[in-house]
UniProtKB/TrEMBL annotation:
Xref: InterPro entries: AAA+_ATPase, ABC_transporter-like_ATP-bd, ABC_transporter-like_CS, ABC_transporter_ATP-bind, P-loop_NTPase
Signal sequence interval, chain numbering: none
Domain ABC transporter: 4-235
Keywords, sorted A to Z: ATP-binding, Nucleotide-binding, Transport
Matches recorded under CDD domains: ABC_NrtD_SsuB_transporters (cd03293)
GO MF assignments: ATP binding; ATP hydrolysis activity
Pfam family, one: ABC_tran
Name this protein carries in UniProt: NitT/TauT family transport system ATP-binding protein
Length: 256
């Protein structure tokens, strides 16, 4: 099981110059093996929320639990993919993917099997021996995804992972992520500014308020797991896109 509960969480950043309340009384439950996409105004606190779930930050108040256990710090049960690549330039693609499993002490044969499996799922089997500098930005992102999956987390946290990619590369990343997620379901929290991306990938889309980030609205995505890129032409998809856009405009206007 991997259910995440964010219960009345506050996060306050205090520096010598400034006090910022990024989250306050923020609550959200993310179900086991659900993909939740989070959208919201820039600077509202989405990355902060992800960092709290990851255990990189501690809440100022409230609790975050994973299957009832309080998140106390980073652990192998949660993997994170950021917008910038988290690949080691001095390691081959295969060694990057196998790094987490090696740190966890997985046997060499198990590691090799996992590396092969996830490189295949992200479509990079032919590049196992390549170094990151020999890859395109989209390919490095695939390595990053394979790396995140290979260490066998229960939860995948993604912060605008495809934000820097062009549309076609992005589309191919959606397909790659869906393929891996179907093969190995996880509880996924995916932060994005791209409404179509959120609707294409999510079971629910959460619209956050301006800072402090709280849940402004939740959209249940009615499409089944078998989604192809043409789904975007569906009138139901476009109607939901408009609903979310309006919701975002509402919170934006409230803030300004
Ligand atoms: N380590 C930190 N120290 C001080 N303030 C911080 C820190 N991290 C984030 N903040 C502040 O908290 C607020 C929320 O930041 P956060 O990065 O979570 O926003 P975001 O929703 O992810 O924005 P974006 O969509 O632009 O990525 C911002 O005002 C930011 O300046
Ligand atoms: Mg952010």
């Amino acid at each position: 099981m991997a259910q995440i509960t964010i219960d009345s969480v506050a996060k306050v950043f205090e520096t010598a110059r400034k006090r910022t309340v990024a989250l306050d009384q923020t609550s959200l439950t993310i179900d086991h093996h659900e993909t939740v996409c989070v959208v919201g105004p820039s600077g509202c606190g989405k990355t902060t929320m992800l960092n709290l779930i990851a255990g990189f930050l501690r809440p100022t108040a409230g609790t975050i639990t994973l299957d009832g256990r309080t998140v106390g710090g980073p652990a192998a049960d949660r993997a994170v993919v950021f917008q910038s690549d988290a690949v080691f330039p001095w390691l081959t693609v295969a060694d990057n993917v196998g790094f987490g499993p090696r740190m966890q002490g997985m046997a060499r044969a198990v590691r090799a099997e996992r590396i092969a499996r996830f490189l295949d799922l992200v479509g990079l089997s032919d590049f196992a021996k390549a170094y990151p500098k020999e890859l395109s930005g989209g390919m490095r992102k695939r390595v990053d995804l394979a790396r995140a999956y290979a260490s066998g987390p229960d939860v995948l946290l993604l912060d605008e992972p495809f934000g820097a990619l062009d549309l076609f590369t992005k589309e191919s990343m959606w397909t790659a992520l869906k393929r891996v997620a179907d093969a190995e379901p996880k509880t996924i929290v995916f932060v994005t500014h791209d409404i179509e991306e959120a609707l294409f990938l999510g079971d629910r889309v959460i619209v956050m308020t301006p800072r402090p980030a709280r849940v402004h609205g939740i959209v249940d995505v009615p499409f089944g797991p078998d989604r192809d890129l043409d789904l975007r032409a569906d009138p139901g998809f476009q109607a939901l896109r408009m609903t979310i856009a309006h919701s975002l405009r509402e919170v934006h206007d409230d803030a300004s």
